[in-house]
Amino acid sequence: MSETKETGTKGALVAVMRKENDLLDKILEQQAVLHECVAKKDWSHLEDAMAHLHALSDSFVELEEQRTSLADDASLAADAELAPVLAQVRGKLQKSKIENRALNEYIKTTRKFLQGVFDSVVPQRRNTLYTRTGKIVRSEPSGITLDCVF
Question: Are 76 and 83 in contact (CB under 8 A)?
């Protein structure tokens, strides 16, 4: 009786992990779209891509909760049927993490560059502001008006 219960749980676990694997493929595709939108500065499609990626991420979280309720990681790595699926899921998660890191670095670099341009073109304040811990606060530009049509 316990062997059939284990087999049923393992079958359900394999099914959940395969769904996670398929969902990670979609997430990786959407991350590529997101990266392309940022690189091309296509802000309207960027918002759509972000919304779609957020929905996919929510679905993945639900599947992950199902997976954790079915088994623990220690039993997954030792099982011959689950090991290949687990390896695929972990590999895709790692790839997704790398994509997120690369996009984050691109955004940080661009933000620093733009902040430097704004600081030199539109100085906001002459005096220096400090936080409670003594760090210098760089104020963001409150607004800018351009005299041109895009």
Answer: yes
